[in-house]
Every structure is written in C-alpha cells, then in structure tokens.
Amino acid sequence: MGSSCIYPLDAPTPIKESSLLDGKLEETNSPYAIAKIAGIELGRSLHSQFGHEVINLMPTNLYGPRDNFSDLNSHVIPGLIQRIHNAKIEKNKNVEIWGSGKPLREFLM
Length: 109
What we know:
The protein is mainly α.
C-alpha cells in the first residue's frame, strides 16, 4: 500500500499514477517512499515472473495520531491543527494557510 507521499515532489496535481518514479522525492518522505515503492515493484515482479495477481492500493492523504505537527513541514491536517492551536494560544485572530487553495485533496484518518 502506498500513499501520495511516494510521488515526486513536483508531481502535477491531481497526481496521476504515471507520475510514480518520475522525479525527485520530497527529502523527509524519501525513506518512506522508497520502502513503499519497493513493495510496488515487488508486486510487479511477482506478476510478471509468476503471474500472481497483485493490487497496490494508493489511499488518499492519511492523518492521525503521532502525525507530524511541525510548523515548517507538516502534512495539511496536522499543520492546520497546529496553526489554529498556536493562534488560539497567542490570541491571534488570523491563521496563515499555505498554498494557492487550488489543489483538490482527499483525507482519510
């Protein structure tokens, strides 16, 4: 099973399966991505060599307990939670949200 984190850093959105292995991985995700990609390639090899039917699932953006809540490089949901939490603590009325607001995203806890 993979996730959107295994695709190249500059993959166009929405991400297409054909973008896999098509560019440089995001540095903090690369060990995770390489392990997931190795599993996908193993499935392909099992199919081509032995005819095994292998399905690789690519669920949407995952979030949950023990996620990365860093202000600098978190995933979307924990990043928003952290920014909103910080704004409440600091009594700020505004929260900065990164990006253009154009990407379409799906989330799964």
